[in-house]
Amino acid sequence: MADSPRHYALLCVGNSMMGDDGAGPRLAELCADQPLSGWTVVDGGAIPENDIGYLRELRPDRLVIVDATDMGLLPGEMRIIDESAIADMFMMTTHNLPLTFLIQQLREDIPDITFIGIQPDVVAFCFPLSPAVEQAVNRLHHCLAALDGGLAIDRFIPST
User: Are 81 and 31 a contacting pair, CB within 8 Å?
Assistant: First the structure.
């Protein structure tokens, strides 16, 4: 009996009205325009906790959460951030609840969760996405497509 294909979920987090905080929603748009085989994409916006129930029901093999994260890097740089480090790091957020709460709520049903932070340049009302963050979103879309071929995401994006 052949192995069933792996199914992934992508939770894109952020506020598209706040400049580079819109990196997540922009990735969701890109995935809608250029779908990724084997992926279910959820635009969690600024209130990703509203999608907890849906993601639990979906039970993907792997969940990747993407959000703009102030890590003190150059704009557009990406990092995989370990769950234990999320609470310890000072992370810029425009969300109602901390992302650690979201991850803890999903952990029981989705054991493989990866958080990817994209370093923003400008997070301010009515600013557009910066070119560096737009390029990062495009690179990440390409990396996620490669996951279906069995490649590990940390091959493309370093960890903190």
Answer: no
pLDDT in tens, the chain (160 residues): 456 677 899 999 999 999 999 999 999 999 999 999 999 999 999 999 999 999 999 999 999 999 999 999 999 999 999 887 776 654 545 555 678 888 988 998 998 999 999 999 999 999 999 999 999 999 999 999 887 655 567 667 877 6
pTM of the model: 0.89
DSSP 48-110: GGGGHHHHHHH--SEEEEEEE---SS-TT-EEEE-HHHHHHS-----SSS-HHHHHHHHHTT-
* Tokens representing residue 133 in the block: 């963050």
Q: How many residues does the chain have?
A: 160
